Amino acid sequence: MSKHEELEHEELLDSMSDKLGFTPHILETIRDIDSEFLKKYNRCNHKLLSDGALPAKYKILMALAVVASKQCERCTVVQMQSALKNGATKEEIMETLEVISITSGAPAVAACRDALKLLK
Question: N or C: which end of the chain has fewer CB within 10 A?
């Protein structure tokens, strides 16, 4: 890989990290293994983290509900960090938790245990 490509991939990772508010380790791993996949991942991530017909924070809250329903504890932390970075309020997050509870039950709510600590 050329220096130019390395710099381009670092800038891409920095941009993604800035939007999220942190750098998920998986993005660093993807960059190291297949930088072209990082570009594809970024296109999808950009849709989630950009305002469109729905504001980004609402799309991220939906993502929080989805990963909670899959009971991915680490994923709920990542989505919670992103939601907070993108302006989600405690009230919006707690209402999302109600939706998670209604649609996916106690196991999905339990998957949010560590994510909810970020509200303290």
Answer: C
